[in-house]
Amino acid sequence: MSTAARPGPAAGPGFVARARRSPSFVAGALLSAWVLAVAALSLVWTPHPPGEIVVANKLQAPSAAHWLGTDSLGRDIVSQLMAGAQNSIVVGVVAVGIGLLAGVALGCLAAARRGWVDELVMRASDFTFAFPALLSAIMLTAIYGPGLLTSIVAIGIFNIPVFARITRGAARAVWAREYVLAARAAGKGPLRITVDHVLPNVSSLIVVQATIAFATAILAEAALSYLGLGTQPPQPSWGRMLNEAQAQMFQAPWLAVWPGLAIMASVLGLNLLGDGLRDLLDPKLARAR
Questions:
Q1: Is residue 23 part of a domain?
Q2: From residue 46, how far is each of 32, 34, 67, 72, 83 by CA, in Å?
Q3: What is the pLDDT of residues 85-143, one digit of tens each?
Q4: Are 173 and 138 in contact (CB under 8 A)?
Q5: Which residue segment(s) compose the domain that 167 sits in?
Q6: Is residue 184 a contact partner of residue 193, using CB atoms and an 8 Å limit?
Q7: Tell me, what DSSP letter sits at residue 112?
Q8: Are 277 and 36 in contact (CB under 8 A)?
Q9: Cβ(96)–Cβ(159) under 8 Å?
């Protein structure tokens, strides 16, 4: 029996065709691409400087000069939304990266070694679950002060046990497969088996979880910024825009609508993308299509 890792359904020539027929994948990919494009565009251009304060223009309704209006300090809403997308994406990428790298490594270690190593990793995961991102951010803020780095660390730490548990469960199933037993009989060590056989066979599950964790990270960053624990002025943040809009809810309701729609579009797009990838990468569902 060959000991080569078995390719998933994504390796087949019909993956692109099946992706085009998946409404969830197409809608999620378009929404996610739109958010990424807006964040990339804001690096080189915004209609107005995001932090520019013009008190004379405060609380203007949407117009040709300010497409979505201005806030209580006269700042352009479109420019703030575009710049705020940068922070959301940075937090999502780095926080998910922390959880993915550390969590996948711990999950693979627990599945490969079993015994007390497995028990230690799982009990450490249980302990970390007792400190959600918001509680971790509050503790870190008390020590180091609020800021973007606080949000990233708090969300990243919370993501570690999520990836560790998912990776461990999927990896243990792979370790019981015949081709892994053949690889062990051929003299391959745990590290080589993990790299050659386990990771390729659990990668699709990890990719799907990463997209869902990305959406959760954006939502968590917005919540932390709303509470004043995340991104600090003068850096724009969707969550802080919602916080500042509270005082003008009846005078200028659009101040809360636009950042809320931005958060909703980002989270919805990533969740739809994750659902689409799950359907496309699941072998059983792939064969049914």
A1: no
A2: 20, 15, 12, 19, 8
A3: 999 999 999 999 999 999 999 999 999 998 899 999 999 998 988 888 778 888 888 88
A4: no
A5: 70-288
A6: yes
A7: H
A8: no
A9: yes
